[in-house]
Amino acid sequence: MTQTEPDMRPDALQKPFTPGAPSNDPELESYPETVSGPVPLELTDRRTAEFVEEWRNASYNCYSSGHKFCREVCPVMQVTRNESWTPTAFHANVVAMEKGELEIADIAEDYVNCTQCGACELRCPNTLFTGDFYKFRTRTVDVVKAVRALAVESGVHQPNWQTWNERTNDRTHEPVLGETEISQENVRNWAEGLDIPIGGDTVLFVDCEAAFYRTAVPRAVAQILQKAGYEFGLMGEQWCCGGPAAEMGYVDQAKRFARHNLDNWRSTGTKRLLVLDPHDYISFTEDYPKYFGAEFDIEVVLVVEVLADLLAQGKLTPTVPVDRTITYHDPCRLNKRKGIWEEPRQILRAIPGLTFHDVDRVTQWSYCSGGGGGLPVEKPELTAAISEKRLGHAAELGVDTLVSACPWSERPLSEAGDAKDIDVIDIHELFAESLGITVGGSRGTVGDKRCGGGGCGGGGCS
Amino acid sequence: MRRGWLFVTTLERPSTDLVDRVVERLRGVLRPDQILTSKTDRYNRARVPAPFPVHRWRERVPDLAVLPETTEEVAAVVSIANELRCPVVPRDGGTGLTDGAVPLHGGIVVDVKRMNRIHELDLENRTVTVGTGINMLKLNEQLAKHGLIYPDDPASYPCSLVGGRIGTSGWSLIGSRYGHTRDLVLSFDFVLPTGEILHVGDGAGGKISKSSSGYQLKHLFMGHQGTLGIATKATLKLYPKPEAELSPFWAFDDYDAAYRFTGALARAGVATFAGAVLFDEYKVAYLRRDDEAYIPQPADVRALTCAVLYGWEDEVRVGGKRLFRIAKEHGARYLGDEISEGDWAARHDRYATPLHGRTKAGQVVPMSWHCEDAAVNYTDVPAVTKAWHEIVADLRRKTDVFDDWGMFAYTSADTGVDYLTEIDVGIWEQRLDDAAWAMWVKAKRDIAAAALAHGGSISACHGSCREGEVDLVPRELGRGFDVMLGVKRMLDPNNIMNPGKYLLDLAYQGDVSAQLAELRGPS
User: In B195-253, which ranges are E strands?
Assistant: First the structure.
C-alpha cells in the first residue's frame, strides 16, 4: 500500500499534490470557500492606517512564526530579560494595531529598547531559511524605525530624543559633548595640522562622535590615507548625516540634513564619499538612496575596505610591532547589517606584534556595545549594561585590548573596559600606530589608559 | 456526545479593584521594574506559538506581569495571589505548542526569564544547577568550555527555557540517545500554589539520579502545564559534548518502504543512535513545492528517512556502518554526504519551516505553521498517518484557511517502541474567524481521537490541554484523571494556579462523575 492509493470515494484531496500545478485534478478548484474571514477593521487614524497597511505583512511573517530565535541574541533582551522589548513583540504590536487593540501611544516607548543592531534579523528562521538563496531578510530594524517615525509624526515624543534632535537641529551636529558648544566652526578642528584640502573628487565624511569626541580616529584615518598617497578632501560645510535623527524617528529633519549634504557635495564637485563610521555607512547606503532615488549618484566607500585593499596592494605595510593581546569587536552595522567582517581581520592580522584572539562573526551576532539606535540618549543604563556584557566576553579571552571599528561603540565600551582594565582602541588608531604614525587627537575622556608605550600618541594622552 | 460543552472559556477575570490590591501588595515584595502593567507588557504575554485565535486576543490578555529574580520572590508573589484569590499563569519561554502559558482568566503572569543564572557547575558529578529562566543554547555556550553538553534539544532549542521544559515535560529530538527532559532534570525547586517551596527529585533530590525512597514525585511536577506551580531552580545531568555527528538521509519510492526502514534502524540497538525521522509522502510533496531550503530530488523520491548518531568518532563510525548495512538491505538510496549534512543543518540547526502555504488553486498565502502531535506505537503509525491526512483534507474541502504540510514521525526511545507523530498544518491566521476557529478546534479533537483509537497518547511533546483535544484527556487517562483532580484540589485549594487548563476546574465542582462519564463516552 502506498499513501497515494485512495481507499474511499476518489477525491482530489486524498493524495499529496502541488497546488497550482497544470496537471492537477480540476476538482481542486471546485470546492466552495465556506470561511468568510474577519471583517477588516477601519482604523480611524489615517497615519496608523497607512502604517499598518505598509507593515502588516512584514510583521505577520514574524507573528505567524512565533519561534523567537531572535530573543537570546538581542542585546537589549540579554540585559533586561523583558519580553515586551523583543523583536517578536515589536512585530506583534503591529498586528495588534491592525486589530485595533493597541495604538501608537501604547507602544512608542517600548521601541526605545532597540539598538538597531540587526542580530534578530539574522537569527530569524525566516531569514536563515531563505536568506542564502533569495536574500530575503526579516525587517525588524525597519519596523522599529517606522514605529518611531509614526510616533514622532503623531506627536508622541521621548523626552531625551526630542531634546537631542532639537539641539542637533540648532547646531547642525549632534550634541556629543553635552554642554560644550559644538558647531560648524569647529567640525574640522580634528584635522588641525594635517593640511587636508576642502572638497574635491573624494571627500572624507567624519561622523559627529569622531569629529568632536574621539578625534584620534579621523586623524588616524587621514594620516594613513595620506601615507598611501590616497587623495581626498574634507567637506565644504558638513552637517550631521541625519542618520541618528532617522533612527529616532525624526525623519523630516534627517531628510533636511541629507539634502544639505548632497547639495554641498554637488557644490564641491564631489563624486565619492569616504566613510569611516559604520552608522554613516548605513545612512549613505540605505537612507540617502531612499530619500533621493536616482539623484543620489555619489559613490560610497568604507574606509576599512579601502585600507584592506591598500594593504593587499602593498601600498601600506605595517612594520612597527604593537605589543598587545587583542580581540576584535565586530561593529553591528558592519557585521550584522552589512556582512563586512573579513577586511578588519585582514588588517589586524597584518599588524606585527599583536596576539589576536578572534571570535567568529556568527558568535558576535549576540554581541553589541549598546551604543546605537539612540539607546544611550534615552537609556544610558542599558547601553552601559550591554557594553559591560561585551567586555565580559573579552575578559574571558584574557586580552588587554578590545579593538573596535565604530566610534559610536568606543565610548561605552571604553567606560566598561575601564572597570575590567581592558583598553578599547579603534582599528584605525591601531593600524596607524603600526605604520609608524603619531596620531594625535583625543581618544575621549575615558580612553588613553595604556599610552605608556608611546603607541597612541594622542593629544589627550598626557 | 455533545462536544465541548464543558470547555467554554468563561470571561470571568479579576475585578479592577482586585488587580489594584494585588499590585499594591506586590509593591511590597518586588521593585517597580519587576511589575509590568502596560498594555504592551500584557498583550505580549498573552500568546504562544500554539494556534491562536487572533480575533480573540483580548480575552487572553493578563492583568499584569511580574519578573521575579529569585525563588523567594516567586513564592512571595504566589502567596499574595493565593491570599487574594488572583489567577497566576507561569510563563517561561512562551514557545510552547500547547497553550499552558496563555492566560484564560487574566491574572498575574509570572515570567521567570530573569532567573537565568548558572548557580553551580559540578564537573566531578557532571551536573549543573541553573535558574529555570535559562535557555539551553545559552547554557551550552557556557558548558562547551568544559567539553560538556546539556542535551535537551527541542525544536525551540535556541529560545525555550529550562523551566518551560519542566512545565511541559518536553520531548527532545535526540532523546533516543540522551533521554528527554524528565530524564535529564535531576531535581528542582518548585513553588506550590500556596506559595510554599518544595524541592523535588528522586528521594532527597539534589544530584541523585535514582532513588527508591518514598513516592516518585518528580514526574508529578513535570508536564502539568503550570497548573501545579512554578519551577525556579533545577539541577541537570551533563554529558560529554559529542565529538562526532552523523546524519544520513535516505530516499524511497514510497512511504511503506521508508516506514519499514525507519523501524529497522530504530530496532538495531546502536548505542550512538540519537533518533530517526520519517518524512511521509505529503511532507516531501510539501517541501518540494514550498520549502526554499529543499534540495531538489528526482520525482521518484516520495519519502525520506534520516537518522542521527552522536558520540565519539570511533563509536559513531562503527554505528554508522551498521546503519548503512541495514540501508542496503532495504534498498534505501543514500542522498550523499553534502545533502545529508546540509539538510540536517536546515532541519535541526536552523529549524524552521516556510511561513507560507497555498490555496488549493495554487495561490501562495502567508500561513503560520502548526504542528499537532501524538505518541503512537510503531505498528500504528501508518494508520494514524492516514487518518490525520483525511482530517486535514476534510478541512480543506471546506476552506483554504488550512493547508496540509505533511507529516514527520520521530523515534522517541532507543528501542523504536513509539514515535512522536506530527502533522504540520498551515493556517492562514489573518483569515481566522469564529467559524474557522471552530473547524480547527473540531479537527484537533478528531486528531486526538484518532491517536487514542490506535492505542496512542494525545501528545508526545506538546501537552494536551488545548481547546478541543482537552475534552479527550479523561478518556485517555481513565481513572488517572480523577487522581489528577484530587491532586489539583489538594495542592491548589483556591484554584489560582493557571485556572481553566486541563479541565481542572472540575476539581472544584463536587461530584463530577456524570460529566466525566459523558466526556469519556461509551467504553
Answer: 197-201, 230-237, 239-240, 244-246, 249-252
